[in-house]
Design brief:
This protein has eleven helices and 15 strands. Strands 3, 4, 5, 6, 7, 14 and 15 form a seven-stranded mixed β-sheet that branches. The chain has a six-stranded parallel β-sheet with strand order 10-9-8-11-12-13, sandwiched between helices. 24% of the residues lie in helices and 27% in strands. The longest helix is centred in the C-terminal third of the chain and has 14 residues. The chain is α/β, with parallel strands linked by helices. The radius of gyration is 20 Å and the shape is globular. The chain binds zinc ion (2 copies). The site of one zinc ion has 5 residues, from loops.
């Protein structure tokens, strides 16, 4: 086994470099993974553009799939050779107030993959065992990768939403997250509305499982939702506070607008719109590892999959640039020489 491995690291904001790094042993509670595939996510800009305080250089990537090749001390429940995934949340501590209360997502000592420690734009990564997700045999590593962040984020938000089968659920934005959210919503038994700008997305939205399509450039999306009876849930996958505000009145009484699209804009909602109808605005942050397992299993069972474009790890910078330019349809996935990207 080679004593070094290839990694794509960011040396300072906006600057990628391909480097060989020395192979290190996993520490206590950690595993070492031979990465086969890693998705390129918009949140990688947290690293690449230095939106978080970063200890440079840093390897981005939080949609990594690979096989465990070494276990650190004290790791239980995982085996060498097992295929696993690492998402945005790098693993809970197990001892903080939130962990002890069962809220692993909001663990106070949670590190973010590719931000606080090196991520999956590499042939090898070290990960905390408490953050691992298991990968079903019938999903390829490349197909599984985007489900670890884009998939988990939308699946978790919809699964924990107050909607029941048959309720009207809207997905705003048909991009990397939204194209998965529409599929999940359909398979969860909701009446699904897709909302995007322009008429071009209508056909794709229907193909993904949407029962209705609203072109928000041509019609008032809130009025269009009310014409359908009002949404119990609107899942906001596009970034921008304005999109939340523009659809908020489309909620039926008791409905909730759940934001998973990160953006700097404030969300402007009037108090009467909140109070009369008792509507809510909420945020949702990916999900815990067990929900990660469920996301992958549910995806394999129902055939939900991300539309992906795979590129070799070495082309990470170009893949990142394409994603940031909004030209990815819909998820870029880096693949390494470790895997052929096929199911086991
Ligand atoms: Zn992500
Ligand atoms: Zn904790």
């Amino acid at each position: 086994m080679s004593a070094t491995y290839k990694a794509i690291q960011v040396t300072k904001p906006g600057e990628f470099a391909t480097v060989m790094k020395p192979l290190v042993d996993p520490g206590p509670g950690q595993v070492r993974i031979r990465v086969e595939a890693c998705g390129v996510c918009h949140s990688d800009s947290g690293t690449v553009d230095g939106l978080f305080p970063i200890d440079w250089p840093r390897v981005p990537g939080h949609e990594a799939v690979g096989r465990i090749d070494a276990l650190g001390s004290g790791v239980q429940g995982w085996t060498v050779g097992q295929r696993v995934g690492v998402g945005f949340l790098g693993g809970s501590c197990g001892y903080c107030e939130f962990c002890r209360n069962g809220d692993l997502v909001n663990c106070k000592n949670q590190e973010y993959s590719g931000i606080h420690h090196d991520g999956g734009y590499a042939e090898v990564m070290i990960a905390k065992a408490s953050g691992l997700v298991s990968i079903p045999d019938d999903l390829s590593s490349a197909d599984a990768a985007p489900l670890l962040c884009a998939g988990l984020t939308t699946f978790n938000a919809l699964r924990n939403a107050p909607a029941k089968a048959g309720d009207l659920v809207a997905v705003l934005g048909i991009g990397g997250l939204g194209h998965l959210a529409v599929q999940y919503a359909r398979h969860m038994g909701f009446e699904v509305v897709a909302i995007a700008r322009g008429s071009k997305t209508a056909e794709l939205a229907k193909k993904l499982g949407a029962h209705h399509y609203i072109d928000s450039a041509a019609t008032d999306p809130a009025a269009a939702l009310q014409a359908l009876g009002g949404a119990k849930v609107i899942l906001i996958t596009a970034s921008g506070g304005k999109t939340v505000a523009a659809t908020f009145k489309g909620l039926r009484p008791g409905g909730v607008s759940i934001d998973v699209g990160v953006g700097p804009e404030p969300i402007e909602v009037t108090s009467p719109d909140l109070i009369f109808g008792e509507r809510k605005v909420a945020g949702s942050l990916t999900g815990n590892p067990a929900t990660g397992d469920a996301t992958l299993r549910f995806s394999a069972l129902t055939g939900v999959s991300a539309m992906i474009e795979t590129v070799p790890l070495e082309e990470a910078a170009a893949a990142y640039a394409k994603m940031m330019a909004g030209k990815a349809r819909f998820r870029m996935v880096l693949v390494t020489k470790n895997g052929n990207g096929q199911p086991k």
